[in-house]
Amino acid sequence: METTDWKYAAAPESTDHIKLKNRYDLFINGEFVKPNSKKYFATINPATEEKLADVADANEKDVDLAVNAAKNAYDKVWKKMPAKERAKYIFRIARLMQERAREFSVIETMNGGKPIRESRDIDVPLAANHFFYYAGWADKLDYAFPNLSTGKAGKKPESLGVAGQIIPWNFPLLMAAWKIAPALATGNTVVLKPAETTPLTALKLAELIQESGLPDGVVNIITGFGKTGAALVNHPKVSKVAFTGSTDVGKLIQKSLAGTNKKITLELGGKAANIVFDDAPIDQAVEGIVNGIFFNQGHVCCAGSRLFVQENVADIVIAKLKQRLETLIVGNPLDKNTDIGAINSKEQLDKINSYIKIGIDEGAEIYQSKCSVPTKGFFCKPTLFLHTSQSHRIVQEEIFGPVLAIQTFRTIEEVIEKANNIPYGLSAGVWTDKGSKIFNLTTKLRAGVVWANTYNKFDPASPFGGYKESGFGREGGLHGLMPYLNL
Ligand code: ADP
Q1: Active-site residue 380, yes or no?
Q2: 147 pLDDT tier (thresholds 50, 70, 90)
Q3: pLDDT tens-place string over residues 277-329
Q4: Is 267 assigned a catalytic role?
Q5: Predicted structure pTM score
Q6: Which of 246, 254, 329, 399 has its CA 20 to 30 A from that of 233?
């Protein structure tokens, strides 16, 4: 039986209860308003290529309205509100999100293409947990930072004002939570722009925020393309810019903000090394490799997209990995059995396919799962490249898809050198039985996050962010509050 064919989908999640509007307007000052641009664009389901809704395309005037609403709410309401009162609103948002978890999960999967199992078990609960976590911080910050020169309790830290936040399409709701929750907890107001291919859960969040009774203008959600994002980050009343997305756009934003004194955090691309030593628990490591690269179709900035296997266990690891590839189900993201869903857009699929061609042209050996993939929608078979080397583009450049570049190594020094010899530095994974090796590597790998004998574990309390071209600033934990505060 072809498990990947639509008609054999074993347990598709029902979409009957999902109520989408035909048209989504901009969420500004507590209400949905028509865009001044009068323009809308279609948002689709990448697994079926069917249109789900039309979404407003905000122009500069719309951005200006949203930022002014946020500034007004900041000056008149949010800045003055006692932290413990602000916390109540953030807790309420968290609770409402939990109550609506199923609806959010299904919409996330329909609009983004990720397996329902991931939306349901990871994205949505983790998004709610970010709101819970940061709600708890809101009233803990006053006087929490001692004056360094006197050692006495310091002043209350100050919020910055309006945060302009731009997020990508790989974890649409979770990224919205990563951005909005710490901003609100620290007393800032927000204008958030979701990615153009995945606006629907952010717009659902806007409905939820409206229902929560959060004062008007504290959170504004505007949709559009890169131009809308550029207008937002460059708006003079925006005091803080938080961006997650590609390294190229991150650099553009950084350049455009030079000299403005706006605070900025950038969480950009990655090309993580997942390193397997010969003393590692091999089966566990193989699962970690699979999770590292195929989770969310590899649309993950911290994806373990470079595998380094110690030479003496390379044959066994690769044989097991190939076997495991054949068991992965690629197909309908709404099917609870699906492991690998749809690629987020045609553009992204074309990019991944062009990298697969580059890998072949560079002389690496390709191994693809023999599974079939649906003919409609955007899908890509899980792909391995063997015998790659540091000079290959598929090793140096971020593909953002289910494509793994494999190299072997002999010594720990060699693998550290190779793992670090890359423009990025977001994350890494280490698989070994020896604690001493883990300690050694966590200090030597130039990566913001290093996972040991696990991969892709996220926790709201744990800071996340990059070195080098992966960006700067941290999100998550206490560190994630700092970029929103003046101490
Ligand atoms: P990807 O390559 O993963 O699509 P992008 O960096 O292009 O990532 O997009 C991430 C987010 O940045 C999206 O919300 C997108 O609309 C926005 N964006 C794109 N270009 C710009 C820009 N010049 N200024 C601000 N935001 C932008």
Answers
A1: no
A2: confident
A3: 999 999 999 999 999 999 999 999 999 999 999 999 999 999 999 999 999 99
A4: yes
A5: 0.96
A6: 399
Q: Is the CB of 257 under 6 A from ligand 1?
A: no
Which residue is listed with tokens 């490249």? 385
Looking at the chain, the whole-number percentage of residues with pLDDT higher than 90 is: 92
Return the best residue to mutate from 166, 169, 179 for the ligand 1 pocket (most ligand atoms within 8 A of CB): 166
Q: Which residues pair with 220 in a beta bridge?
A: 191
Catalytic residue among 301, 302, 371, 380: 301
Tell me, what's the pLDDT at 12? 85
Residue-wise pLDDT tens digits, 178-188: 999 999 999 99
Of 487 and 353, the one with more pLDDT = 353
196 lines ligand 1 (CB under 6 A): yes
Confidence of residue 444 (pLDDT cuts 50, 70, 90): very high
Q: Whose CA is nearest to atom 1 of ligand 1?
A: 246
Q: Which pLDDT score, from 0 to 100, does residue 154 have?
A: 72
What is the average pLDDT across 458-463?
Answer: 96
